[in-house]
Write a structure and sequence with these properties.
The chain is mainly α and about 400 residues long. The chain has 15 helices and 4 strands. α1 crosses α10, α2 runs parallel beside α10 and α8 runs parallel beside α11. The longest helix has about 35 residues.
Length: about 400
């Protein structure tokens, strides 16, 4: 019993010594301090501000009206009812419109053909040609979507007028044109805003990026100075790595328990990003996410002989991490191999759970799968970090005679 009490006391001292040592290292290292403050708060603020408009308005679209009749002008007015498109009718031919398009003065072209009104009156089918830049999905979706909606309403008006000319009532004519009444509602992201879609995912991803950068810089410095054993003297004792790892994970969790309310409570509030869950539930979910990122950061830091190496390495893996997280492309669209790889990255489960909580009003049982997966990663990376820390401490010990 006395041995257990003595061991508990030593581990508790080692735990708080780790917390104190790590905190002092963070405070004294300007690069790490600026990483936590500037990237986690200022960068998120800047990103949110960039996407604060949510939805694009008045996208310039050239109208090449080759018919120049009242019906064609009515169709242009129908397009103008959309706040997403701003029509420009000064272009007399397609070549002039193409020149403006390639000069980025406009984002789309609509061509109304000759005999537009004549064909409609005679019952012939006519074609409206729409060109939009698919390399910019935001403009492409807005131009194509709004033109399609305007064309649909215009078609409905023509069909109903034909029915009315036959003596059919307006209500009956409307039913004949559209026998199925469709009600469509957007869930969660009701405005279909890009910022509301992007920012919550970026928040979870930035947590991983900031932690890996901070841990990489600190451990890179210790690798250069060979101070790992000096800072954490009980590493080579049996079970000595456990309080060290838990102390690091505890400190970083406390730091983000302070930063996250600033991000969610202030940045989200300023830019009207909805939060549909309690802060306490979000923090409970993020505990294994923070732990898993800390432990994988410690494990990866053994690769860095210099502090600058961590930044280079993180730049190299940041894009694959971003892509595999499902932020830029749905994870379900990956091949089986990349789906397996993505499951080993904490941000994959962290982003899914964070978005479900803050944006979809999910209950805790509904994100329990992501939570359990994060605890599994925490356990796996804890074992790996334990081994790598022990190896680093042994390497420093083996180099002591050579230094003397």
């Amino acid at each position: 019993m006395k041995k257990l009490i003595k061991k508990y006391h030593k581990n508790r001292v080692s735990f708080w010594n780790t917390v104190s040592t790590e905190w002092d290292s963070i405070k004294s290292d300007k690069a790490v301090t600026s990483t936590f403050l500037s990237i986690s708060i200022i960068l998120l603020f800047v990103y949110t501000y960039v996407y604060s408009n949510e939805v694009v308005h008045e996208v310039p679209v050239a109208i090449v009206n080759q018919d120049a009749t009242k019906t064609s002008r009515d169709f242009i007015e129908m397009i103008n009812t959309s706040d997403g498109i701003k029509t420009i009718t000064k272009y007399s031919d397609i070549q002039e419109a193409k020149h403006a398009y390639y000069s980025k003065k406009i984002q789309g072209i609509v061509i109304i053909p000759k005999n537009f009104e004549k064909d409609l009156r005679s019952g012939k089918q006519t074609t409206i040609s729409t060109f939009s830049d698919a390399s910019n999905m935001v403009f492409y979706k807005k131009v194509l979507g709004d033109i399609t909606i305007a064309t649909g309403y215009f078609n409905a008006g023509i069909s109903i007028k034909k029915e009315l000319s036959k003596g059919i009532t307006f209500n009956k004519a409307s039913e004949n044109y559209s026998p199925i009444n469709t009600i469509s509602r957007s869930l969660f992201n009701t405005s279909s805003g890009y910022g509301t879609y992007m920012i919550p995912m970026l928040t979870a991803l930035i947590i991983q990026l900031v932690l890996l950068m901070g841990i990489g810089i600190l451990n890179g410095s210790r690798q250069e100075d060979k101070t790992i054993r000096l800072n954490f003297p009980r590493l080579l004792h049996f079970g000595g790595t456990i309080p060290v790892l838990l102390g690091k994970a505890f400190l970083y969790s406390v730091i983000f328990a302070i930063i996250l309310p600033i991000q969610i409570g202030i940045v989200y509030f300023i830019f009207d990003i909805p939060v549909r869950s309690s802060l306490g539930l979000v923090l409970i979910f993020l505990i294994p996410y923070l732990f898993s990122v800390v432990f994988i950061g410690i494990a990866l830091s053994t690769l860095f002989k210099k502090r600058e190496d961590s930044l280079i390495f993180l730049v190299l893996i940041s894009i694959p991490s971003l892509m595999l997280s499902g932020l830029s492309f749905p994870k379900e669209g990956f091949s089986n191999f990349y789906q397996i790889v993505s499951n080993f990255i904490p941000s994959t489960h962290g982003i899914n759970g964070f978005v479900k909580l803050t944006q979809m009003n999910a209950s805790f049982p509904e994100i329990i799968k992501e939570w359990i997966n994060l605890w599994i990663l925490t356990f796996v990376y804890f074992i790996i970090a334990t081994i790598t820390l022990k190896i680093r401490a042994l390497k420093e010990l083996s180099q002591l005679p050579k230094q003397n």
